[in-house]
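Translate sequence into structure tokens.
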Amino acid sequence: VQLVESGGGLVQPGGSLRLSCAASGFTFSRYAMSWYRQAPGKERESVAFISSAFGSPNYAESVKGRFTISRDNAKNTVYLQMNSLKPEDTAVYYCSAVGGPYRYWGQGTQVTVSS
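Result follows.
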């Protein structure tokens, strides 16, 4: 099983980034997918969630209206479009797959929002 995040980097406040998470080694379409983040000295927190059945996505209050999670089951990939980025969005972003008793994590990608 592999989850490989990409798309992180340094961006100015107000800018945008699109994170991708490519999955392999399991039946992607049967798993709910999430994005989490962890800032230095803070606990890992859930940012966005999308079910396996294309239900309505869920978002943390802090990112509602700015972030959009989506998935492409044909490409085994989940995305996180991040707009209007703020310095407080700076963190390592992780994707996670959940299905039944199983949860998988990626290695994370750094997002830094700074002028």
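Note: The longest strand covers residues 91-99.
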